[in-house]
Amino acid sequence: MDLFVESVRDLWFADRPLANAAERVRRLERFPELQPNEEGITDVADTYAFFAALCLRYALLAHGSGNADDAVSCGHAALTAMGMLDQNVAGAGLLADEQRLQSLSLSGDAADLWDASVTAGRERLRAVVGRLLR
Q: Are 63 and 24 in contact, with CB atoms under 8 Å apart?
């Protein structure tokens, strides 16, 4: 869990290199959420844990290498996760919100992006927890 939290925190400092990005990716890839299994992903908690780990993996790769394909993959994974959540939470609007955040990230205004991301993160957490309690 520390790896996940520290990596998310450190990714916000986009103006400085991320220490040990490749090592963080290797450690993250050992998370059970990213390990293939015969049954696949079948429950709600596993689904969102998988997407969280996958998004972080691509974000770390993109930050460490500057590869645009990794950034696109990160964005795609986030959009897919929010689209799935929208399908399961009436009136959520999370996909549209993620699209807005991704557009905002291109504007270069980190302060606005930070505030909007914190708000979105709280809303997403509430939506996922609501799904888990069903």
A: no
DSSP letter for each residue of 40-101: ---SHHHHHHHHHHHHHHHHHHHHHH--HHHHHHHHHHHHHHHHHHHHHSTT--HHHHHHHH
In the numeric block, the tokens 């520390």 are attached to 2
pLDDT in tens, 25-56: 999 999 988 888 888 777 888 888 899 999 99
Q: Using CB atoms within 10 A of its CB, is residue 128 exposed (0-12), middle (13-18) or buried (19+)? A: buried
User: How many distinct structural domains can be found in the chain?
Assistant: 1
Domain extent, residue 45, equals: 2-132
Q: Is 114 helix (H, G, I), strand (E, B) or coil?
A: helix
pLDDT tens-digit map of 56-114: 999 999 988 888 899 899 999 999 999 888 888 888 788 888 898 888 888 767 777 87
Task: Supply φ then ψ for residue 78, to 5 degrees.
Answer: -65, -45
The model's pTM is 0.82
